[in-house]
Design a protein that fits this description.
The complex is a heterotrimer of chains A (151), B (127) and C (491). Chain A is an all-alpha fold. Chain A has helices at residues 6-11, 13-36, 44-62, 64-70, 73-96, 112-140, 142-150. Chain A is flat and about 55 Å long. Chain A starts with 5 loop residues before the first helix and ends with a helix. With 491 residues, chain C is mainly α. Chain C has a two-stranded antiparallel ribbon with strand order 1-2. In chain C, helix 4 packs parallel to helix 10 and helix 5 (132-151) runs antiparallel to helix 6. The two termini of chain C are 25 Å apart. In chain C, 64% of the residues are buried. The chains are: A mainly alpha (151), B mainly alpha (127), C mainly alpha (491). Chains in contact: A-B, A-C, B-C. Chains B and C meet through helix 3 and helix 4 of B and helix 5 and helix 6 of C.
């Protein structure tokens, strides 16, 4: 298979330095979209994808190993599960406090919607980031996973 | 005249949809089938997005300055279909990822992703 | 508390699925998933009892009342379906050793349970929701997790089977999405009850007709109605047996329910049968499915494929019940939905036992199996008799309702066709039993032991209940009749 060799990608100075510059801003922009989401365009889905794009870019340029050192695959799994649990947890909490499922008003009559949405979107953002990164890991790390299975 | 001009979106949707469906049916390459499915799904997404458009409507973002009331003069597009499509897009991503994952596994197991060859291998191999 | 049950029903397995990922240990996850399934079963039964006594439960998600918000709406029919889904899941999940047949290494098998619980979430969501777009979302949750589950089967053909199901399923799901879009365009609402009301003034338009068409084709692909069944035999043959047991017993059933909901709740019988004459299409297809499925089953050499084709025939009976457009017919369809879930689920578990010991699903390899695995073989025989519809088994009850439905309408020929296709079932059931009972055992069979007790009891609970519900018919009959009357709007 002749694909882009991670070694060679790492040796390209322009790609490496530009990514080093860009990645922090990509991640920051993701957080902006995330927290801007409850009073403007944005939200967890978009933010999660942008954040994951930052991670994937890092993985493409510096190699899968480097990315997996920073964000281990198991952490990704836990985050994917944790995000769903945050979302569901908010719903269950509102139910326990006497409201309907996901009835944010119950937390606080004035700011309940705000807090509820913030938490929900955080859950969505975490899960989407984790899921997109997991997809990248699954495809990029496939050769390695196969070697492990064969052993 | 106006009726036709207002309906061009549907024509685009139908053409896209048929392109997608035809690709799924006619192509043997599994990756191309996935692409066809994507085009097919996008056509429906475009249909929904077109549904939400209101003539002269702007983006449905609440712009009250200092707690004043909403300007009733402004016409907004209907945001609901767009929000629904967020879900549909996510479904599309999940389907594509899963489909491509299956294609990778099929390539590993059979050494090909052409459907006619897969059928031939299955018929010869038995198992 | 009862008022919250519809939400808890869906949320419990939904949140239990990520917990599986966190727990990670295969044994712990297995126990956890089983407990969740049993708890869901308890919830479903509570809902069923509640709806039988007090009528519909409506739940406004997030406190937004319908038609603005998403409404979960549970009447007897929905609760009946949720009971079936959770009941089958709670019998299939304790069936731990089935995981030995998976294609993934043991330390990743917690993901199997995650996918399983997500699949259950989707099925339960389809059962309880009153919102059209929600139906699409849950259809896709179910489908995506079931493609994964099917691909977990041993052998590379599981992959191609899962892929072709993915293509068909996605087309079906997208058709449903388009249909919902067209209905939304005409009505401006997504709530099914509200949609039905607002559709009334625009019933004559072509948009509504097209929407109905897309709905029907989409649901029929998922349901594997006769010419759209191609994905099913492969998927059920190559999936892990546990997965085949669960999907054949629940996924097609819930899709049937979606079709019934579309026909009766959204568009209404007057439009579907009065104006469009849907029965002119559905009835011949159902009859064709009954015969083609049974005849194809007779020629199969793999037992799982045989059962899959038999499923196709049995789905024909269910859609036939729908096409009769009468309380008797629909009751028959719903009773058969329940009974077929039990017997086909039970039979696939029997096959799981056999393949677990024999390591083969070829019928010729099962020669003389009755001597070595007597309980398992007996379970297959009883399940088979139920498929045929012998009196004393559950299968008889559903055919009884269907025949009654045909006779009430004076369609004696239809009743005769139902009986004739039942005779065909004798052919394929006997084919297996003959091999098991009369043929001399091969070496392969001589060296097997009976399945462990932990794998036999779920089989016997399911097969046993086909006998119980064959003799004691008041429960299924009454509930299904009330459900049918609710669906048709007579209550």
């Amino acid at each position: 298979m002749s694909g882009p060799n991670p070694m060679r990608m790492r040796e390209m100075v322009v790609v490496r330095e530009i990514s080093r510059l860009l990645i922090p801003f990509i991640l920051l922009f993701a957080l902006y979209v995330q927290f801007h989401g409850d009073f403007g365009p944005g939200g967890g889905f978009q933010a999660g994808v942008i954040f994951a794009a930052g991670l994937v870019l890092y993985g493409l340029v510096y190699g899968l190993d480097a990315l997996q050192r920073a964000v281990p695959p198991r952490l990704i799994e836990v985050l994917a599960a944790g995000g769903v649990l945050i979302y569901g947890g908010v719903g269950v909490a509102s139910m326990v406090m006497g409201g309907q499922f996901l009835e944010y008003k119950i937390f606080d009559p004035h700011h309940g919607e705000h807090y509820g949405l913030l938490l929900i979107e955080a859950g969505v953002g975490i899960t989407v980031t984790a899921a997109m990164t997991a997809i990248f890991y699954a495809f990029a790390g496939r050769d390695r996973a196969r070697d492990e299975e064969a052993r | 005249m106006n009726a036709v001009a207002g309906l061009w979106v549907y024509a685009v949707v139908i053409v896209l949809m048929m392109i997608g469906l035809y690709t799924v049916i006619s192509r043997d390459n599994l990756v191309k089938k996935i692409m066809g499915l994507n085009i097919f799904q996008v056509s429906v997404i475009m249909f929904y997005v077109a549904l939400g458009k209101v003539d002269g409507g702007t983006a449905p973002i609440f712009k009250a300055t200092h707690g004043e009331h909403l300007d009733t003069e402004v016409v907004f597009s209907n945001p609901l279909p767009h929000v629904l499509m967020l879900t549909a897009i996510v479904v599309g991503i999940a389907t594509t990822a899963l489909g491509l994952a299956l294609v990778v596994r099929i390539q590993e197991a059979y050494g090909t992703v052409e459907e006619d060859e897969l059928v031939r291998i299955d018929q010869e191999g038995g198992a | 508390m009862n008022a919250h049950l519809p939400a808890i029903q869906v949320v419990l397995p939904l949140l239990a699925a990520p917990v599986c990922v966190l727990l990670q240990n295969r044994k712990v996850v297995g126990v956890w998933a089983t407990l969740v399934a049993w708890a869901s079963f308890a919830i479903a039964i509570t809902m069923l009892v509640h709806t039988m006594e007090h009528g519909t439960i409506s739940y406004a998600l997030g406190g937004w009342e319908s038609p603005l918000g998403i409404e979960l709406r549970v009447d007897v029919a929905n609760a009946f379906l949720a009971t079936i889904v959770t009941g089958i899941a709670s019998m299939v999940l304790p069936y731990g050793p089935g995981s030995a047949t998976l294609a993934i290494p043991e330390d990743k098998q917690y993901l199997f349970y995650t996918a399983f619980l997500l699949c259950m979430t989707g099925l339960l969501g389809m059962s309880v929701t009153g919102d059209a777009f929600n139906v699409f979302v849950f259809v896709e949750i179910t489908s995506l997790s079931s493609y994964t589950l099917i691909a977990l089967g041993k052998g590379r053909r599981a992959l191609t089977a899962a892929f072709s199901y993915l293509v068909m399923g996605t087309i079906g799901g997208t058709f449903i999405l388009l249909a919902i879009g067209l209905c939304y365009q005409m009505t401006g609402t997504l709530n099914m009850a509200d949609m039905a009301l607002r559709l009334q003034p625009v019933m004559g338009t072509r948009t509504v007709l097209v929407a109905f068409g897309f709905f029907v084709v989409g649901a029929s692909i998922k349901l594997a109605v006769f010419p759209l069944h191609q994905w099913m035999p492969n998927a059920y043959t190559h999936a892990p047996s546990v997965v085949s047991a669960f999907l054949s017993a629940t996924a097609t059933k819930v899709s049937y329910f979606v079709l019934v909901r579309v026909v009766f709740t959204i568009f209404g019988a007057a439009y579907v049968f009065g104006t469009v004459h849907f029965e002119w299409l559905l009835m011949p297809l159902s009859i064709a499915a009954m015969f083609v499925g049974s005849i194809a089953a007779m020629y199969q050499t793999h037992i799982k494929r045989l059962l899959a084709y038999s499923s196709m025939a049995q789905i024909g009976y269910m859609t036939l019940g729908l096409s009769m457009n009468s309380v008797e017919g629909l009751t028959g369809g719903l009773v058969h939905l329940f009974n077929h879930g039990l017997m086909k689920g039970g039979l696939f578990l029997v096959v799981a036992n056999i393949t677990f010991r024999l390591n083969s699903s070829k019928i010729e390899d099962m020669a003389g199996l009755a001597r070595k695995m007597p309980w398992t073989s007996l379970a297959f025989a009883i399940g088979g008799l139920s498929l045929i519809g012998v009196p004393g088994t559950a299968g008889f009850i559903s055919k009884w309702y269907l025949v009654q439905g045909a006779l009430v309408k004076g369609q004696v020929w239809l009743a005769l066709l139902i009986l004739m296709s039942s005779l065909l079932a004798v052919g394929y059931v006997w084919k297996v039993i003959e091999v098991m009972l009369l043929k001399p055992p091969t070496d392969r069979v001589e060296n097997t032991k009976p399945a462990p007790l932990s794998m036999i009891w779920p089989v016997w609970v399911m097969i046993g209940s086909t006998v119980v519900f064959g003799l004691w018919t008041t429960w299924t009959g009454t509930v299904a009749e009330v459900a049918a009357e609710t669906l048709m709007g007579l209550r």
